[in-house]
Amino acid sequence: MESKEARHGGTGVGLAVCRKLVDAMGGELSIVSELGKGSTFTVTFRDVEISSTAPKEGSAPAKVDKKEETPSASAEQKRILIADDQKMNLMVLKSMLKKLGTFDIVMAKDGQEALDILNSSDSPFYLVLTDMWMPVMDGEGLVRAIRADGKLASIPVHVVTADTEMQGKYSETGFDGLLLKPVTVEKLKGILG
Description:
Radius of gyration: 19 Å
Low-confidence stretches: 1-8, 59-75
Number of domains: 2
CATH class of the largest domain: Alpha Beta
Distance between the termini: 51 Å
Mean pLDDT: 79
Largest sheet: 5 strands, parallel
Structural class: alpha/beta
């Protein structure tokens, strides 16, 4: 007997995740389906700023786009570092944070890049949001390195994960908090205070 996944091409969880991501970014997801012919999924975002230049793959560590800085972008602006190996997750978190305030958002593709950014920064970070599972250095390795460094040790670090078993264990590992996926603006607001 073949599994449900094999017969239908999946469990349908991906669509639910897509809907949550699109909702979180203020977009709309529509579906047109015709029996025997397939389905068309359309995602629509309104009032999106489009840049004519795209970042190059394999380029230097991600920096804050100058166009995102405002005249009020100063040393008082709260800096947040997001570490995740999935570009979509970085963009979703960045979009949600922008809805909650004017933050200086810096992104890293793994824990090692995040640590390098923290060590080379002249301005302090208000918060680090990190995925748990990443190549090179995972979230646990990142938080351990931060806690072992006297000048970084006081930075709040929250793990962003779908692993519900982390709920009772995140503080044992050195994290200040847990942000369970799917992430929502309300959950982020709770962390930012």
